[in-house]
Specification:
294 residues; alpha/beta; Rossmann fold; eight-stranded mixed beta sheet; globular
Length: 294
């Protein structure tokens, strides 16, 4: 089994496990009102609205969209007290995409979704989606409160992410989506090569869904490569922020949770017993009810 010889890579890439955990089953039934909105650059963004109460938007991490990842389960639980919006980030699921990619365009997608919400929302960002949430708020997107689950920043991760993004892009440009997934799973996620070789046979649904959206993995690495929201732009995030981690997650993720909370003017951290990066919805949701208020 392949050994990972540097701890930072665990921090940067553990978010990939979310897609692995939640992508093995059948097609998700998108309960609620399935709609679309249009972002500033004309890109169509697909979303689902369910529940009633104050608006709450969930921002997914790498590989994840409404049919692949934790957002649908979380939304069904959160809809007891909130009007929950889940959406396919650009280039994924039923949403469109417009080249060239820019983080500002993803921020505009959130602005469009906030307009659909009709009021200032709570925002839950998961993994690299937490990093996107920080970018959005720092750029002026309104939020009542934000909760971030294990944003996978690493102190020495910027160069590694740039190198990984370059390798991924070379596979994608060549039309080799399977090669791109293998590259991400081994070079970034750190999975054993033997497991990655067998994944198309052991987890065919997960493999297929990851191939469908692997072209968006460089987007997440681009977002994570910008640490300005933890440094010179952190003062612009003047909103209550709860940064949540799992006690069973690697030390690198613990350090990232603490660092993000410390960097933000109104940040605080909390760790959940028995949890790792693949957090349980029934464990996380009561914490969100307490924090956001019901």
């Amino acid at each position: 089994m392949r050994r990972i010889t540097f701890a930072a890579i665990v921090v940067i890439v553990a978010f990939g496990g979310l897609a692995i955990r939640y992508s093995g089953g059948g097609t998700v039934t998108l309960e609620g009102e399935n709609r679309t909105t249009t972002s500033r650059d004309g890109t169509i963004i697909a979303y689902t609205k369910r529940g009633s109460g104050p608006p709450l938007i969930i921002v997914d991490g790498v590989f994840c969209y409404r049919e692949n990842g934790p957002a649908t389960e979380l939304a069904s639980l959160l809809a007891q007290h909130y009007t929950v919006f889940t959406y396919d980030r650009r280039g994924r699921g039923e949403s469109g995409d417009t080249a060239p990619y820019a983080v500002d365009r993803e921020i505009d997608d959130l602005r469009a979704l906030e307009k659909e919400a009709g009021a200032t929302p709570f925002v839950l960002g998961i993994s690299s989606g937490a990093a996107l949430t920080l970018q959005a708020v720092a750029s002026g997107v309104d939020a009542k409160k934000i909760a971030l689950y294990e944003p996978p920043y690493a102190a020495d991760g910027t160069r590694r992410m740039e190198d990984a993004r370059t390798r991924l892009q070379s596979f994608i440009s060549a039309g080799d989506r399977a090669g791109a997934v293998r590259s991400f799973m081994t070079d970034v996620f750190g999975a054993p090569r033997g497991f990655v070789f067998l994944m198309p046979f052991l987890m065919p649904t997960a493999w297929k869904r990851n191939k469908l959206v692997v072209h968006t993995a460089p987007y997440d690495l681009t977002i994570l490569g910008d640490r300005s929201v933890l440094n010179e732009r952190s003062s612009s995030i003047q909103v209550s922020t709860l940064v949540i981690g799992g006690e069973k997650s690697p030390k690198g993720l613990h350090d990232a949770v603490a660092a993000v909370a410390k960097a933000l003017p109104k940040g605080k951290s909390r760790f959940l017993a028995g949890q790792d990066h693949n957090v349980s919805g029934p464990i996380l949701v009561p914490v969100l009810f307490e924090y956001f208020g019901t």
